[in-house]
């Protein structure tokens, strides 16, 4: 069995970006450290963070699907190439 170096592809870069975006958004505190605009009486500071919980979930799902598809592609290529693994 031959072990090659992992190949960095555009889909994997997109998956990494999907995982990094929420961290950057939450670390940029000046962007949400305020009370207005309020949404249904909830200060901006709180609803912005709750919105990012949902957005982060969606981005994590996208990254998961991208990585799983990549893994399946690699597995099929190995199987078609006669490698075991």
Please sum up the structure shown.
Helix content is 65%, strand content 0%. With 85 residues, it is mostly helical. The model has no long low-confidence stretch (mean pLDDT 86).
Rounded to an integer in angstroms, the radius of gyration calculated over CA atoms is: 19 Å
**Continuous helix count:** 2
Order of helices and strands: HH
Largest sheet: number of strands, sense, barrel closure? none
**In percent, how helical is the residue content?**
55-70%
Q: What is the overall shape?
A: elongated
The class by helix and strand makeup works out as: mainly alpha
The span between the termini is 8 Å
**Beta strand %:** under 5%
Number of strands: 0
- In round numbers, the mean pLDDT is 86
Unreliable residue stretches: none
What would you say this structure looks like, in words?
The chain is mainly α and about 80 residues long. Helices cover about 65% and strands about 0% of the residues. The chain has helices at about 10-25, 45-80. Helix 1 runs antiparallel to helix 2 (about 45-80). The longest helix has about 35 residues, at about 45-80. It starts with 9 loop residues before the first helix and ends in a 5-residue tail after the last helix. The model has no long low-confidence stretch (mean pLDDT about 85).
Layout: helices, strands, pairs:
Layout: H1 10-27, H2 44-80
């Amino acid at each position: 069995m031959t072990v090659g170096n992992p190949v960095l592809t555009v889909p994997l870069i997109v998956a990494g970006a999907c995982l990094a975006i929420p961290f950057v958004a939450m670390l940029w505190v000046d962007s949400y450290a305020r009370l207005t605009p309020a949404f249904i009486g909830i200060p901006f500071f709180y609803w912005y963070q709750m919105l990012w919980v949902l957005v982060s979930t969606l981005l994590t799902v996208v990254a998961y699907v991208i990585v799983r598809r990549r893994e399946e592609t690699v597995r099929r290529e190995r199987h078609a190439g006669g490698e075991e693994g």
